[in-house]
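Re: How this chain folds, sequence and tokenised backbone to follow

Filed under: protein folding, tokenised backbone structure, sequence and structure records.

Contents: The amino acid chain and a row of whole-number tokens, matched residue for residue.

Body of memo: The sequence and its backbone structure tokens, given next.
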Amino acid sequence: MKKCLFVFIVSITSFYGYSQSFFGTQYDNYSGINSVISNPANIINSRFKTDINLSSASLFAGNDYYSVKLGDLLSNDYDFEKQSTKHPKANNNFYTNIDALGPSFMVNINDKSAVAFFSRVRAITHVSKISGLFLNQIQDEVNEDFYFENQNFSGASNAWIEYGLSYARVLIDNDTHSLKGGISIKYLNGISSGYIKARNLSVNYDYTGLDVTDRTTTTGNIETGNISSLNDFDDPFDNRGSGFGVDLGVTYELKSKDFDDYLLKFGLSVTDLGKLKYKNATKVYYDANASYTDAEFALNDDFDSYYTRISESKSFNVSLPSTLHLNADWHLSKKFFLNLNSDLNLISVDNTNSNFVNNTFSLTPRFETKWLSIYAPLSSVQNSGFQAGFGFRAGPLLIGSGSVVSALFDETDAIDVHVGLKIPIYKGSKNN
């Protein structure tokens, strides 16, 4: 058992691998089709006649157990396990999120309405509320007894494809105010799903110095979905899920008297309402009262070899990571803006096979013109702390990170990056 649980955690959190996707860039007025994923109302009255995304991708990996410097991580002789700083506590968390926007486009039909189509691949993986004190003991060779009780950790890995249609319309527009609304309807194609949930699991390890006599005793319950052991998924790609999702959003603009644009813009949206259903999945609930030696477990770590099945079924649902987005954008001068954003998780982390985003609060100053935008997000990310980043948009190219600055100058608990390539077809000369 020594390293099996640790190996599982490392593998499940790196199986793919958001808090917030595309840190800092979504609220650029020239983000175009990329902005639809946070608020479908953003596509109306944008700076484009048409915006075509060729390919864009965002990766976030965060935790509250490891801290590293980006420079150290890139060193050839850096030993991550031995040299990274660890912060073990009663409940530690690991999280990764990939968000890739495939071929997508938006079109302004007229001054009052716009439509968009987008394709998107997403993958969210997490291990939540696991004892870092336990992990710290089992990473290396164990040469002493240990005991942990009432563990209720969970781990899940979900990947799916979205095909979305969006419509946005100007609802109110006069010399002072503007109100816009938008909706996205999404068809979901589940690629894979696997999870494990411990319920009051206790582990007692009796060390003797010999694999044939070192003994692990466990009590409690374990629920699994498409996972047959701590080391292997149970054919995660052998079934497909399907479902539907909805994004809803509005934006309000207070127009400026000093220049032909807004002074303040507020956005409110709820994204990822919906779920996926896996009809051919394997869901099992185990009585985990068992005892086995290291030698026995090394030969066979399959759950069915040690635990008793209490119940099983052939399907389960996966909720989308429903999120509330609140955004305020202050137009300081012709080319300078200050953005305040929050992404708030609406899904309980304790749900079985939970699929969620980490709460994120960010403040982003930006310089914005038609052909160039520069932004420097400052963020607080749940379970990963303060992050400082930098990014830019130069015509069709988008590159940035919400954590690169903090990762270069100090140890960080999170790393993220985003890149994109698009074909922007601009309107006239407004805000050039």
Observations:
- The chain has six helices and 25 strands.
